[in-house]
Amino acid sequence: MDKKILATIELADHEVRLIVGQFYNGRLNILKVERVPHEGIRNFEIIDAQSVRQAILKSVTNASENVGGEITRVLVCLPGVDLIVKDTVQTVSINQYVTKQNLETLYQKVTAHGLMDGRILVNANITRFHINGMTTRKVPLNEKCRELTVEADCYYVNRDVVFDYLKIIEGTGLEVLDVVIDDLGFAKEAGLFEKSIHHPLIGVTLERGYSKLSLFNKGQLLTNIYIDESVGDIFKKFNEVYGFSSNIIERLIYFNLDVSNVSPSTNPVFAWNTKNDEHSLSQKDILDFAGNDMIQLLDLIHKTSQPIYGYGDTSFLISGEAAIIGGLDAMLKSASTREVSLYVPNTFGVKDPTYSAILGTFYHVKDTRFYKQEMPSSIDEDGFYKKNIYREAKQETKAETFTGKLKNLFTDS
């Protein structure tokens, strides 16, 4: 996995997101990030395949040109629609030491049942290993024993959504290396399994087209729920009243709205002209126009989560594209009287809550490398290194030649 170049793609409701990264010494280095808008997905249904396909091709082409190698294979971050979690316990006999083959056999047994009630098994997360009378979360590779047992959670999601998303990605000529649901990606990136060992934790994902609550407890993902309201309702309201495009609304909401600000600025932050007049909006205008809608959304999140409060000291962790809006953590804490935090990735180049789930996709694939066959790179690495090493060598030769000419001028004189 180290030094392998991988690309992960996510089909969000309004854009295609693509991240190209490389693990080096266990750390994920970001090589390229692409976000290309589309108008082809509504409520997890493909309504304009051509729009989505063109956005995928553009993102891959742009990233390939910048990275210096053609991206032909991708990991896919999928929405966890209609999630059902089923636990399983599986055991294998061991001949002296735990080998990678033993782990692969166990994983195959865990993932043996692929379909259930219109849902398909997308991921399995091994939560505990039982070996020599002890329980551990650490992969016991090369440990000596006679028998190895694992506890695992299997994540089943809507089969039609999975097939439709993968069909359109593969229709562009890309090969899908692996898939990871966004709840699991969020958990891996933000450490939600570890943070929920002692008390319930609700991961709040605020995307433009949906709002989702993912429940974690005792180190496991239990379920998720999509709620009716989203930031997209505010986008629609701005468009209907002012006729603004999505790009303008995004700047107004994400960078000028703070729902906890009791004295917002009245200085204009956006101005435009019509045939009859000049207009402007201040932060106060934006708060007056959209603040109550956002607070209602946070209140709905609180009310939906209330049944969980009785199971322990519940906390919230907010992420997703719309988590960048100011004051969300403070207002949700005020409504729920629970601890609320905002999660922003700390990986250089992607310090934006938009990328929480897609970044976790890389880490889940890295963590499951013990259970699966070796995964190829997203690009032709041999050709990539030859091309770039040759380019560096050529540039160095040119530099030396030019320097040599300068030296000769002084020597000749």
Explain what this protein looks like in three dimensions.
With 413 residues, the protein is an alpha+beta fold. The chain has helices spanning 49-67, 100-110, 159-170, 182-190, 192-195, 232-242, 246-256, 283-309, 328-336, 356-367, 381-412, and strands at 5-11, 15-24, 27-37, 41-42, 45-46, 73-78, 84-93, 115-116, 119-131, 134-136, 147-158, 175-181, 201-206, 211-217, 220-227, 268-273, 278-282, 315-319, 339-342. The strands form 5 sheets. The protein has a 5-stranded mixed sheet with strand order 3-2-1-6-12, sandwiched between helices. β8 (115-116) and β9 form a beta hairpin. α4 (182-190) packs across α10 (356-367) and α8 packs across α9 (328-336). The longest helix has 32 residues, at 381-412. The chain is globular. The N and C termini lie far apart (56 Å).
Draw up the topology in text.
Blueprint: E1 5-11, E2 15-24, E3 27-37, E4 41-42, E5 45-46, H1 49-67, E6 73-78, E7 84-93, H2 100-110, E8 115-116, E9 119-131, E10 134-136, E11 147-158, H3 159-170, E12 175-181, H4 182-190, H5 192-195, E13 201-206, E14 211-217, E15 220-227, H6 232-242, H7 246-256, E16 268-273, E17 278-282, H8 283-309, E18 315-319, H9 328-336, E19 339-342, H10 356-367, H11 381-412
Parallel strand pairs: 1-6, 6-12, 13-18, 18-19
Antiparallel strand pairs: 1-2, 2-3, 4-5, 7-11, 8-9, 9-10, 9-11, 13-14, 14-15, 16-17
Helix pairs in contact: 4-10, 8-9
